[in-house]
Write a structure and sequence with these properties.
This protein is mainly β. The chain has a domain at about 55-95 and about 115-155: Immunoglobulin-like (Sandwich), CATH 2.60.40.790. The protein is built from two helices and seven strands. It has helices at about 25-40, 150-155, and strands at about 60, 65-70, 80-85, 90-105, 110-120, 135, 140-145. The chain has a four-stranded antiparallel beta sheet, with no helix packed on it. It has a three-stranded antiparallel beta sheet with strand order 3-4-5, with no helix packed on it. The longest helix has 17 residues, at about 25-40. The radius of gyration is 30 Å and the shape is flat.
Length: about 160
């Protein structure tokens, strides 16, 4: 039976850095690995809104005559919403204050969620600020911004050609 060398491939030397064997470096690597594995797959999504930040979902629709902005604001009271229209942007600000209390025979649970938000949406066309209107219904804010007659006239349809 031939003898097999226990040394790594003959003729090649292994160059290992001295710091790789430093006990503190090894400990740091192990701790980093431990924390990386512990937090892997852990998302903050279930806690959204509990850290003072809330960003509402916003949809923007543009037609020939107007621009409609729809924002989902669940848990926000209408008196806590501020809508302002600038020259070329729409700003929606508000504050969300939510408190949930749940009592049972063997338990008591109280959750509070507070946070403010601000969304500024650039407008693609000039709008008539006098005729702008906002409606809040069942947690959904809809802002309708009619375009000015000049903006409607400046809209030009461009034909698409194929080769």
């Amino acid at each position: 039976m031939p003898k097999k060398s226990l040394l790594p491939s003959e003729g090649k030397s292994l160059q290992l850095k001295r710091e790789e064997y430093n006990p503190l470096t090894l400990l740091r690597r192990e701790m980093n690995s431990l924390f990386d594995n512990f937090f892997r797959g852990f998302e903050l999504e279930p806690f959204k809104g509990h850290f003072g930040t809330f960003s509402p979902s916003v949809d923007i629709q543009e037609s020939v005559k107007d621009i409609k902005v729809t924002a989902e604001l669940p848990g926000v009271d209408d008196k806590d919403i501020d809508v302002s229209l600038g020259k070329d942007s729409l700003t929606i600000k508000g504050e969300k204050q939510e408190e949930k209390e749940d009592r049972g025979k063997d338990y008591y649970r109280m959750e509070r969620s507070f946070g403010s938000f601000s969304r500024t949406i650039p407008l693609p066309a000039e709008v008539d600020t006098v005729k702008a209107k906002a409606e809040f219904k069942k947690g959904v804010l809809t802002v309708t911004l009619p375009k000015t007659s000049r903006a409607i006239k400046e809209t030009k349809k461009i034909p698409v050609r194929t080769e």
